[in-house]
């Protein structure tokens, strides 16, 4: 798992390309990224499956802050980003959320 940040000169936005490798979601039919940037919607931001078996999506975020997120695999299994900028305790359950700082 990883993400790549690309700051846009024309806008005050940062394009973040999130990538979930197939090792983290073997045999997954669908993956959604769920986080503060989409009001924790489990359906709003689907990730695109790649031929490699990885899943990817690009999200534009306002720079200067941090966003918590997690990956939702097949609407049943939660996964963190193994290379997140940091992790914070979730308000729900006994788990942590991934954080991307832009």
Description:
With 102 residues, this protein is mainly β. It has a single domain (2-101), classed as Immunoglobulins (Immunoglobulin-like). It is 0% helix and 47% strand. The strands form 2 sheets. Strands 3, 6, 7, 8 and 9 form a 5-stranded antiparallel β-sheet that branches. The chain has a 4-stranded antiparallel β-sheet with strand order 1-2-5-4, with no helix packed on it.
Element order: H for helix, E for strand: EEEEEEEEE
Coarse structural class: mainly beta
How far is the first residue's CA from the last residue's CA?
17 Å
Mean of residue pLDDT values: 94
Total discrete domains: 1
Q: Unreliable stretches, pLDDT < 50, 5 or more residues? A: none
- How helix-rich are the residues, as a percent range? under 10%
What overall form do the CA principal axes indicate? globular
**CATH architectural category:** Sandwich
Largest sheet: 5 strands, antiparallel
CATH superfamily: Immunoglobulins
Task: Record keyword descriptors for this entry.
mainly beta; four-stranded antiparallel beta sheet; 9 strands; globular; 102 residues; Immunoglobulin-like; 0% helix; five-stranded antiparallel beta sheet
């Amino acid at each position: 798992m990883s993400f790549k940040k690309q700051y846009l000169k024309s806008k005050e936005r940062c394009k973040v390309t999130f990538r979930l490798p197939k090792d983290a979601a073997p045999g997954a039919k669908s993956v959604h990224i769920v986080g503060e940037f989409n009001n924790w919607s489990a359906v709003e931001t689907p990730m695109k499956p790649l031929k490699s078996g990885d899943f990817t999506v690009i999200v534009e975020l306002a720079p200067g802050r941090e966003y918590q997120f997690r990956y939702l695999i097949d609407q049943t299994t939660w996964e963190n980003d193994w290379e997140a900028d940091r992790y914070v305790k979730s308000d729900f359950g006994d788990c942590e959320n991934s954080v991307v700082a832009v």
